[in-house]
Design goal:
Distance between the termini: 38 Å
Radius of gyration: 25 Å
CATH class of the domain at 56-326: Mainly Alpha
Shape: globular
Oligomer: single chain
Structural class: mainly alpha
Number of strands: 5
Number of helices: 23
Order of helices and strands: HHEHHHHHHHHHHEEHHHHHHHHHHEEH
Largest sheet: 3 strands, antiparallel
């Protein structure tokens, strides 16, 4: 459907669709969704859905096994985890596209880095009957530019096994861990996840770490022989490439004493952050890298530190029959906060069953409050710790998004006089307000982490070197600050509103950093603006509502693909999904729209696509890790966001 057709459709439904969907239908859908969600609550009181990513994680898992268990003296390779390697390889093969490659989101184009990793993993495992698939993958990888066109992290991993020229990979100097936090260049000027990913890689690079591959194994057949284009002679990218060459010369000179101190500093930084966490930063890439670094530093399989990190890594593995999948992390705080908030919205006068579930969830969330300083304190000193993280345990890395959502959720889930809640709320609100960036917005983990120059370093092609302010988190932070005690944060709220006004797109939408994409950003920007008391008749809010209605699909739902991060024109295309339909509706509700044909059609879409068990189906990826690089499918987004939308519609449409 073209944008013109969408606009015509929106106009048509606005005029001709029935102006209500019956209370009994809405209530029935809410009750069914509630029962389904309550059935998924864990005994401890939390929710945690599967978190799905692309096939690069299973490919990396196989490479990690080669690292941990190298080939025997005869060159053969059968690690003790061989059965798991076979299962992982089958999962990789399952996701090969009809064109022979691998993509990073369902329905997306083939991605050369994903292809290189998948091909390497499948060739290592040599699944019986996979020869034709490998041949097809080889052709597709070459069509995409071969190994030379892959990103820097893929090349770094291959270099550890002698499969890529190490001198053509970027140097990550561990000496940065010797620099003072207050110096102009230091590790806290890059995003928290980049710090955690790069620290172990700096150790591995400095130690010239390497492992053997099975006898006769190589990747020559997927090298195209075409080197990537050089950057402009006068550019920051070219400057950093020159600096990288200088670092390589410096490494060859070998100031060993200084280098050893740097390695030890990086090791200390890394090991300190193992404490009170699910692993280093509690995310797959840094956890995998840290395991590799520990083994290179001499930690044996009998060492308690390595044992613990391997156990935590194993916690990411899901085995189902003869298949194995890797989750990029766990999302219990996030899932529990949104589930609780959705239930609270849908049940303003909860039954005993719902009330007990909310209280259990609230107690569990309170047990996850951060009470110790983490990396954030470097750029935000003198603030009492507070807030929440995303995972089961990640004390060093609370984030503004989870903190805002938990504040909103517990306000709904627990009685205001609960013994521990008022003090925790006060700490969290103070912490959240203190994390506001100088531009008026909020980012995820740090304040003012926006030194654009660092996006040009050679290892910045994961497209997430920084953690700048974004509309989606800013909207949620404003919404949380507009709760009890909002008067103290009037200026912070006003600055956040001005930020949102300033970064709105020309078409009325907002960019979504952590969800796909403009529908997500627009939803949460509008919710923040409504909470702040902005007049829905303001031109910029009217424009946002018009944009949402203009991109509605003919089935009444909304959808947007991950491709909109690469080409914003793609924001007007995408099959309808329950989560994105819910976001669009929640955004429209924030403009005061509960009755137009667009809203009624969206509600009808949710009711008609609901399954008999109260759930919804959603196969597409609607979560964002690193835009253009890494996407996520949250398996519970299809459950709690539609429930939230139906609950808010019920309140706005049928409550006096």
């Amino acid at each position: 459907m073209t944008s013109t057709e969408r606009g015509s459709y929106a106009a048509a439904v606005g005029l001709s669709a029935p102006l209500s969907t019956g209370f009994s239908q809405v209530r029935g859908a809410i009750d069914a969704a509630t029962d389904h969600l309550l059935g998924l609550q864990k005994e401890a009181g939390h929710w945690v859905g599967e978190l799905e990513a692309d096939a690069t994680l299973e490919s990396d898992y196989i490479l990690l096994q080669l690292w941990l268990y190298p080939p025997g003296p005869d060159g053969s390779w059968r690690p003790p985890t061989w059965e798991r390697c076979l299962k992982a390889a089958r999962s990789v093969l399952d996701r090969q596209t009809p064109t022979g490659g691998w993509n990073i989101f369902k329905g997306g184009p083939d991605n050369v880095s994903a292809c290189v990793k998948a091909y390497t993993a499948l060739k290592l495992v040599q699944l019986p009957g996979a020869e034709a698939a490998l041949a097809k993958a080889r052709r597709r990888t070459l069509e995409l530019g071969g190994v030379e066109a892959a990103n820097s992290y893929t090349k770094i991993y291959l270099s550890y096994f002698g499969l890529f020229d190490r001198d053509k990979t970027p140097t990550i100097p561990p000496e940065v861990f010797l620099l003072e936090a207050g110096s102009k260049i230091n590790i806290y000027e890059i995003s928290s996840w980049s710090r955690a990913i790069l620290a172990p890689l700096a150790i591995l690079g400095a130690k010239r770490a390497s492992r053997q591959v099975p006898a006769g194994f190589g990747l020559d057949e997927i090298f195209s022989g075409i080197e990537p284009a050089r950057p402009k002679l006068v550019s920051w990218k070219s400057f950093f490439l020159w600096a990288d060459k200088s670092l390589k010369i410096w490494e060859r000179i070998g100031l060993n004493g200084f280098r050893q101190r740097a390695i030890e500093a990086a090791e200390q930084w890394m090991v300190e952050r193992f404490e009170k966490s699910d692993g280093l930063a509690a995310i797959f890439p840094s956890m995998m890298n840290s395991i590799m670094a520990l083994t290179e530093l001499g930690y044996g399989f009998d060492h308690p530190v390595l044992q613990r990190e391997l156990e935590r890594f194993d916690g990411l593995i899901l085995e189902k029959g003869d298949r194995l999948k890797i989750q990029p992390c766990h999302s219990p705080v996030w899932d529990t906060a949104i589930s609780s908030f959705a239930l609270g919205i849908a049940h303003p006068q909860p039954s005993d069953k719902v009330r007990r579930a909310l209280e259990r969830a609230g107690e569990w969330l309170l047990s996850k409050e951060v009470r110790e300083p983490g990396d954030w304190i470097v750029k935000n000193p003198g603030v009492e710790p507070g807030g929440w993280y995303f995972e089961f345990e990640n004390e060093f890395y609370p984030d503004c998004d989870d903190t805002a959502k938990v504040l909103l959720a517990i306000e709904t889930a627990l009685p205001s006089q609960h013994r521990a809640w008022p003090a925790a709320r006060e700490r969290a609100i103070r912490w959240l307000a203190s994390m506001q960036c100088r531009d008026g917005g909020w980012a995820a983990f740090d304040r003012d982490n926006d030194a654009e120059i660092l996006t040009h370093v050679p290892f910045a092609d994961h497209n997430a070197m920084l953690d700048p302010s974004c509309p989606d988190i800013t909207g949620r932070a404003i919404e949380a600050l507009c709760g009890p005690g909002r008067g103290r944060y009037r200026e912070a709220i006003a600055r956040g509103v001005r930020y949102l006004e300033r970064v709105q797109q020309d078409d009325g939408s907002w960019y979504g950093r952590w969800g796909v994409n403009y529908i997500y950003g627009t939803c949460f920007a509008l919710r923040g603006l409504r909470a702040a008391g902005e007049d829905p008749n303001e031109a910029y809010i009217i424009r946002a509502g018009e944009w949402l209605r203009s991109v509605q699909n003919s089935d009444g739902g909304w959808g947007e693909t991950c491709g909109s991060y690469d080409d914003p024109q793609e924001k007007i295309y995408g099959a309808s999904t329950p989560s994105q339909t819910a976001w669009a509706l929640l955004g429209l509700f924030a403009t005061g729209d509960y009755q137009t044909g667009s809203v009624v059609s969206g509600i009808r879409y949710l009711i008609e696509t609901q399954n008999d068990d109260g759930s919804w189906d959603e196969e597409l990826f609607t979560g964002t890790g690193f835009p253009s690089v890494f996407y996520l499918r949250y398996h519970y987004y299809r459950l709690y966001f539609p429930l939230m939308a139906l609950g808010e519609y019920q309140r706005g449409r049928f409550t006096d």
